[in-house]
Write a structure and sequence with these properties.
With about 425 residues, this protein is α/β, with parallel strands linked by helices. Helix content is about 30%, strand content about 25%. It is built from 12 helices and 21 strands. Strands 4, 14, 15, 16, 17, 18, 19, 20 and 21 form a 9-stranded mixed β-sheet that branches. An 8-stranded parallel barrel has the order 5-6-7-8-9-11-12-13, surrounded by 4 helices. The protein has a 3-stranded antiparallel β-sheet with strand order 1-2-3. α9 links the parallel β12 and β13. The chain is globular, with a radius of gyration of 23 Å. It binds ligand LLP. Ligand LLP binds near residues 59, 62 and 239.
């Protein structure tokens, strides 16, 4: 459920007509609903309420805007980060460093040191050497790093290949059969408090079966480690829950997921960590755009909008579906291809799609764009970096400016050796 709805024939975010935002900010622009973010945070938390000890770390990569992070921080969420930049965002949003989980397969020594300095609450170790380096850095600083070892359970999440992370050929985690040996070696190092295990098998997952199988495999490693005398008090179960991009394709609900977790982790006696991203922010955002032309095509018309693949990369990258709706629908429909202005055919949002009838100048939205939308934007074709707006009831605020090409050009220079 979200808070984007038609009121008197015009699409609103909460109580704000989207056309009003366009008057001030222009298009394209991302628009987020605070009430939807809060609802999703609450639903996710409630889904876990049957579990004894839980910690939710929002996967910042899904939507790193600091206003969005602030909304989630107020809901008691911590952050799952994968870079020093994301750590700065989490701290800027007022998140406690102890509530931050540092994931990622390529953390640099500088990033590890900065995270130790800040007091990050959990490091998810991806390879033995990283654990050795982290322990040495922490020891030299007179600190102890709380950490878990990420296991690659070799389970197919059944999602798009580019966002599948838990198969043995993927770059993530240590091979499950090597995990006990690596754990044993790392756990003896000074500077490191290795408390448990982590996993994350992919994103936009629609079938809880593979997730449950992966949890079972990690549970078995945990039992082996305990039998060998190691104490385990934390397991990080990752993120990955899918969202409905298409109305007739409904993923498992957070409540279904929570019930599965209860079943899969019964008797584990650990703190359970979660790293949801998409399910919290996905349908809390839309990309608002204006139709530039309706261009006749050989087979069907092209609706050319002023948003492009640089603003919303998911269709070009993963053939992802985003619903397209007119801001002031007439009730008429048309079949069209929807494309942006960027000069490649991959800049296509939809092919042969039944959509609300639109004409040049009309406003429209791409739905479910709150996750992996603005965060993946670029300035390709020297387009502006897309701005973001957060709505709260009847008011709204610009929470990220449009970065004009002039500003980007100002960071570039022609060197002396090219001077005329
Ligand atoms: N934890 C880890 C270690 C991750 O790598 C990810 C996502 C998450 C948590 C959050 O997963 P979520 O709950 O959002 O599924 N750009 C792609 C998605 C990439 C996901 C990367 N990792 C897309 O637009 O579909």
């Amino acid at each position: 459920m979200d808070h984007f709805q038609l009121i008197d024939g015009a699409l609103h975010c909460e109580a704000v007509p989207l056309s009003r935002i366009v008057q001030e900010v222009g298009t394209p622009v991302y628009v987020y609903s605070r009430a939807t973010l809060e609802r999703h945070a609450r639903v996710f938390r409630e889904a876990l309420s049957g579990l004894p000890r839980t910690h939710v770390a929002f996967a910042i990569k899904a939507n790193p805007n600091i206003a969005v992070l602030k909304v989630l921080q107020k809901q008691g969420f911590g952050a799952d980060i994968v870079s020093g930049g994301e750590m700065k965002r989490a701290l800027a949003a007022g998140m406690d460093a102890r509530d931050i989980v540092f994931s990622g397969v390529g953390k640099t020594r500088e990033e590890l040191s900065a995270a130790l300095e800040a007091g990050v609450g959990q490091f998810n170790i991806e390879l033995e050497e990283e654990g050795v380096v982290l322990a040495a850095l922490a020891h030299a600083m007179g600190k102890t790093a709380d950490a878990v070892l990420r296991v690659n359970p070799d389970v197919d999440a059944g999602t798009h290949a580019k966002i599948s992370t838990g198969k043995k050929e993927n770059k993530f985690g240590v091979p499950i059969d090597e995990a006990p040996g690596i754990f044993a070696r790392l756990s003896s190092l000074p500077g490191l408090n290795l408390r448990g295990l982590a996993l994350h098998i992919g994103s936009q997952i629609f079938d809880l079966g593979p997730i449950e199988a992966a949890y079972g495999k990690v549970g078995a490693v945990m039992a082996d480690l305990r039998a060998a005398g190691h104490s385990i008090d934390r397991i990080d179960l990752g993120g990955g829950l899918g969202v409905p991009y298409e109305r007739d394709k409904v993923p498992p609900s957070p409540a279904d997921y929570g019930a599965m977790v209860e079943r899969a982790t019964r008797g584990w006696d650990v703190d359970l960590y979660f790293e949801p991203g998409r399910v919290i922010v996905g349908n809390a955002g839309v990309l608002l755009t204006r139709v530039i032309w309706v261009k006749p095509g050989a087979v069907r018309p092209f609706v050319i909008v002023d948003a492009a693949m640089n603003d919303l990369a998911r269709p070009a990258m993963y053939d992802a579906w985003h619903d397209f709706e007119a801001v002031a629908p007439t009730g008429e429909h048309m079949e069209a291809n929807i494309a942006g202005p960027v000069c490649e055919s991959g800049d296509t949002f939809a092919l042969a799609r039944q959509i609300d009838a639109v004409k040049a100048g009309d406003l429209a939205v791409f739905r479910t764009a709150g996750a992996y939308g603005a965060t993946m934007a670029s300035t390709y074709n020297s387009r502006a970096l897309v701005p973001e707006v957060l709505v709260d009831g009847g008011r709204y605020a610009i929470v990220a400016d449009r970065i004009a090409p002039e500003t980007i050009i100002a960071a570039e220079r022609v060197p002396d050796f090219l001077a005329d």
